[in-house]
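Input/output pair, single chain:
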Amino acid sequence: MENYATAREQEQSNADIMGQKRQEKALREFKEVLNDLMFLLRSASEMETAYMYWVNRSRKQFVMETQSTMLDNVMFKDRISFENHFLDKFKDIDEPVSVRIGEDISASALSHYYNDVPVEYVTLLPFVNNGETVAITVLESSEHVFTEDNGDVIYSYINALRNVLNTYLEISDLYEQEDEWIAYEDTISDLEENCHRAEMVKKLLNKIQSFLNDGGASFVTQGMDGWCNVMNSEDAKYAPPIGMQMVERSMAYEAANCGEAEFAIHLNNNPNRLSPREFHTEGASMAIPLMMKDRRQGIVLVYDKNPLVFKESTKHKFINLVRTAALQMMANDPNMELDAPIFANDYRAFLPDLWERTVDTELLRIKKDIVSYDSWFGLVTISNVAELRTKMRMEELADMQRDLITAFNPSQFGFPGILGYNSDYVYSFFLQNKDSETVQKWTRAVKKKFTNAFTLSSGEEIETGIKVGFVRLTDDYGDSYQVLSNAKSALSQALKSNKNEAI
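Output:
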């Protein structure tokens, strides 16, 4: 009996130690995520210094959690009493507050700077839990105050902080979810990369895919005078075809319209994720807007046949991942023009960085035999570019390119597909459909529009022909470069003849 009791005590002791280690690891990784969030917040808001203090009311202290700065003359104290810190009179705020050095607070109050105080504006972001301000994030800048125009960054950060806190508490209570937290922290870290925004979308979709068992993730964005699906995760099951248009009353439309995430369990194929023409509307889905300073730049669709995948904690993670990706995109390209679609050019054709990654992803999906559509990639142009360039002014040529994108748009003929920019007057296209004659039908429809003189939006008429070269995607292709090279060869042959060429 004594041996049995001793063994039980030892077993319980080991369990307690393991539980403590799990909690310690979760806490450590939680702090790492907070460090990453603070860096992203400072970068996206273009501030010199950003930091967060917990408000410890029982000890009447501000406790440093994390900080990020680009300045050299900064040194923070880990703990400081209320009465010795300028945050004392702000410790009960429940909304963001902006102050100016020299007017609202003195420069000497910012004791974490030595030699001189190089900042002029301070913005305070409270974190409120159960009606009490438990933490304050401080942003300091020498040139500009954090205004309402940056509200999306504030909203994203506060919600990301709340989601991370909730996730941490959940994992601290449920030891068996330790691996999930580690993977989530790794996922957040993997998004902290200086890369093109199209690459960030690809990474984001594949990271979300790792949470799913029988579904996928897709990205919907603006281009070609509308919204459509432009990329799927590499392992997505039941993904909508590339180019499927977003329609009103769909989940994606509602998310884009209100700027908030939408969640639904599908009954009798309702509601639609993207379009009534989609297949496999089963299980449950989320539509999460990619927001940048209150601009809707895209919608991330997440779907799985098993609705139980969408636990509250998992939904928070998806939303947080999308917000983190948006912050990182803004940090990577501070001069990005957010008042226009960021994944299409001035002609409304999708950027090469985007369609190249779409082709690469779909090639991988074809190799894995998880694509239920035929796919074609090609190039389309007009037959008398040189002649028109000598007749028209530069601004007229630019308007003509926009009109050509509208005229070539596959969706107006009922075919899912996207148009991308390859070079002036030469556009890439990617069509995906169950009908094996899709590319031929689309080509005939486009050519018919140009049988007689084509009227531009300016009212001017042009006479031209259409030349198309394309390839059908198979697992023989290695990457988008090889596909593009073959499509160029096909277009070259088409320009030399009176026929469309396919390889």
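The chain has three domains: 1-42+146-343, 48-145, 352-502. The chain has eleven helices and 18 strands.
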